[in-house]
Amino acid sequence: MKLYHTPKAVNPERSYTFLKAKGKLDAVEIEEVSIMKLEHRTDAYKKLSPYSQVPVLVLDDGSTLTESRAICTYFEGRFPEPNLLGRDPKEKAVIEMWDRRIELGFLSNIAVWFRNTSQVMAALENPQLPEAAAKAETQVRKFVATLDEHLAANEWLAADRFTNADITMLLTCGFSSLVGWKPHKEHANIAAWYQRTKAHIDQ
Amino acid sequence: MKLYHTPKAVNPERSYTFLKAKGKLDAVEIEEVSIMKLEHRTDAYKKLSPYSQVPVLVLDDGSTLTESRAICTYFEGRFPEPNLLGRDPKEKAVIEMWDRRIELGFLSNIAVWFRNTSQVMAALENPQLPEAAAKAETQVRKFVATLDEHLAANEWLAADRFTNADITMLLTCGFSSLVGWKPHKEHANIAAWYQRTKAHIDQ
After folding, report:
1. Chain centroid to CA B44: how far?
2. Are residues A37 and A71 in the same domain?
3. B118 occurs within a structural domain
4. With an 8 Å Cβ cutoff, are B92 and A74 in contact?
């Protein structure tokens, strides 16, 4: 298997960190793709990823997968332990619920905020709409405050152990620094959870 | 089990139609929630759904699930046949990939377009940003044209049979009519797939 990966980009990092948390980085060949150099827009790359998305996973049979969360699902099937997506129907659903809450309430709003304000994105995001960024900022600050409340009473986001939902939130906290915001410096429970989660992944 | 459902709202319909395609509507009590009457904003409802989302599934043990796609995952575990989310790691990942492409490239853009232009949404979506709607419209028209190409060569969206990805796209085609657009009237391959999918669900 081969994973086309862009380090530091939030969606590619979701698949990469999932594989790392499985302890299986050495089972997959990694090839870096530079989005800044527009390597994802070449014809050769579009044969692997029709919508120019990173990551792409090329399977042993030569077929390709895109969408970071779908690639995680594949990794979970191939490398079942440690379990990160749930063991039974209820646990699977609860982990997916939290993963989606983070994705839709936190990650997506940071993406709108970033794309519509960052100089780096000016050429790719045309026109940039500062009002859309401001609305996303208001929504995400309110939502993240509810995550801090949740983490006051829960060691991990979705279960009594580290799961994929923690990965998504950890990476989104890092992504937030691109708009000059560090929610894990602002909220005490998120701060403690952030250290716990980072230590778990780096162990 | 009990499902809190808002008919005609696209995300609640995802869980409801999934259950219908399983032939299991009679296994779950359905209670309707009127978003227009703000029934999802009451304190009683927020005890079930902290972010005021519809749908909510109340499990037999009294715990609750939100996020329509997570509720589908739970139904798949409880009612395995007909399979709608994939039988092996690769099929699961491919179906999820297409489901996410529809959700992120089609459904989300229609939602931005709708929320920022509809009179109905003026009170809930403040401020409405016509420029954000215009950008979403441009993106979604381009994306949906690629879906028409895909369906020229494929009977179903994600596999050699009807799956959850078809449900998400069918409902999003219907949702599009809220902004006065009917992609299934505009694109020949989507039109044929739309009739096939609708007939399959209604059978």
Report:
1. 25
2. yes
3. yes
4. yes
A146 CA to chain B: closest CA distance, Å? 9
Q: What is the DSSP letter of B103?
A: I
B23: helix, coil or strand? coil
| Residue B63, domain extent | 2-78
**pLDDT by residue (tens digit) across A35-74?**
989 999 999 999 999 999 999 999 999 999 999 999 999 9
Query: Going edge to edge, which strands form the sheet with B56-58?
Result: B29-32, B2-5, B56-58, B64-66
Instruction: Give dist(CA A57, CA A1) in Å, integer.
Output: 7
pLDDT in tens, B51-109: 999 999 999 999 999 999 999 999 999 999 999 999 999 999 999 999 999 999 999 99
- Find the residue in A nearest to B150 (Cα): A50
Last residue of a domain, one of B20, B54, B78: B78
CB within 8 Å: A74 and B93: yes
CB A43 within 8 A of CB A82: no
Model-level ipTM above the cut of 0.90 = yes
Domain boundary among B25, B53, B78: B78
B27 at interface of A, judged by CB pairs closer than 8 A: no
Decide: pTM greater than 0.95: yes
H helix intervals, A38-163: 43-48, 68-78, 89-102, 108-115, 130-152
Looking at the structure, tell me whether residues A194 and A133 fall in a common domain.
yes
Q: Is A61 helix (H, G, I), strand (E, B) or coil?
A: coil
Residue A63 located in a structural domain:
yes
Chain B nearest-CA distance from A27, in A, is 16
Q: Do B77 and A88 touch (CB under 8 A)?
A: yes
Q: Do B74 and A65 touch (CB under 8 A)?
A: no
Q: Are residues B17 and B114 in the same domain?
A: no
Yes or no: say if B28 and B19 are a contact pair by the CB < 8 Å rule: yes
Report the C-alpha gap between B40 and A130 in whole angstroms.
30
A59 shares its domain with A93? no
Same domain, B72 and B98: no
CATH number at residue A156: 1.20.1050.10
- Could you tell me how far CA A65 lies from the centroid of its own chain? 16
In this complex, do A73 and B67 lie within 8 Å of one another by their Cβ atoms?
A: no
With vertex at residue B196, the alpha carbon angle to CA B193 and CA B199, rounded to the nearest 5 degrees, is: 145
Structural domain includes residue A84: no
